[in-house]
Design brief:
There is one protein chain. With 205 residues, the chain is α+β, with helices and mostly antiparallel strands. It has two domains: 1-31; 40-202, Immunoglobulin-like (Sandwich). 21% of the residues lie in helices and 37% in strands. The protein is built from four helices and ten strands. The protein has helices at residues 2-9, 11-30, 34-38, 187-196; strands at 41-46, 50-52, 56-72, 81-99, 108-112, 118-120, 145-153, 162-166, 177-182, 201-202. The chain has a five-stranded mixed β-sheet, with no helix packed on it. Strand 3 (56-72) and strand 4 (81-99) form a beta hairpin. The longest helix has 20 residues, at 11-30.
Length: 205
Amino acid sequence: MIAQSLRRVGWRQWVWVVIGLALIVLMRKNMLSYDERLAPLPVHGALEQRVVGRTFAVTVKGFRLARSYKTAGGWVSRQQTLVLKTPGIWMSTVVSLEAFQQPVGAVSARVRAADGSYYTAGASDRPTVKGVNLTGEPVLPGLPQNGAYFFELPPAQLVGAHLEFFTAPHVPGSNDALVDIDLGLDKAKVDELVAKAPDEVSLLP
């Protein structure tokens, strides 16, 4: 039966059918899954470089380490000063944010360590620095936001760390632009910065 069919159709046609089926199988294997199609779109950059995502741009101008921060404020009296300590190290990053065409809400920030751990930027009250802490601050077109994000993390996690920025509240959302900034930190550089980190940095006005 198969031999008769081959004689009627011709072996050349069967060859093309087999090739077509093989191409279809190959294309299906290379197709992105649903989750992959909705995954954040990574955009890579470096310090002091303006990195453009889908709806916003980020420039990380620098960063600084500290063992504690002294800030103003408190629930009892605004005249109080608070000292924010950490079992690890504080890292503040000086950032400029821009929105394109429409408001993007707040831009979230986190540190991605080399082992895949994440350290989210501190809340707007950790530390409370009016007009400086960018956590939760909306970014509007034509009105760049200049300020800082503050992170607490173990010093060793700074080796090979990257900064990540995105517009979803907690984790990058579907089709979100994920701006990835390589801090360029090896162990020798981290050890040097940690050794020089001041015991206390005043953020008082």
